[in-house]
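Encode chain A's predicted structure.
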Amino acid sequence: MMKTQDIEALGRMLEGLADAPTLDLRLTRSGYAIRMKRDAAPTRRIMEVEAKAAGILRWTSADGDAPAIGAETAPRAILGFIEAETHRIAVRAPRRGVVERRLAPDGEPVTAGQPVIALRPLAG
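Encoded structure for chain A:
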């Protein structure tokens, strides 16, 4: 059975290798062996969230604050609103992620399909 300190050491090792272009890691201890292999480094792609309608962009989330750069978002979290002619349309995070940057300022007119915020997806 793996000991807690072995698992923690393996976790630290993997964090240090997260951006390595390739990986072939083998760990053998008495009673168990682990092998991890990756042919290419993971991509750190950025996901752009688009306005669902034309209107005025308001960076006000459900709790009243603008989404902070570096803040983690939950799936379907409200990041802001588009004020259309007669109603408000939520700008929602499509999945769990981290706010990388706002692509349009508060109060700016936006068009349907225009990217308004960039998120870095997180697992889970």
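The mean pLDDT is 82.
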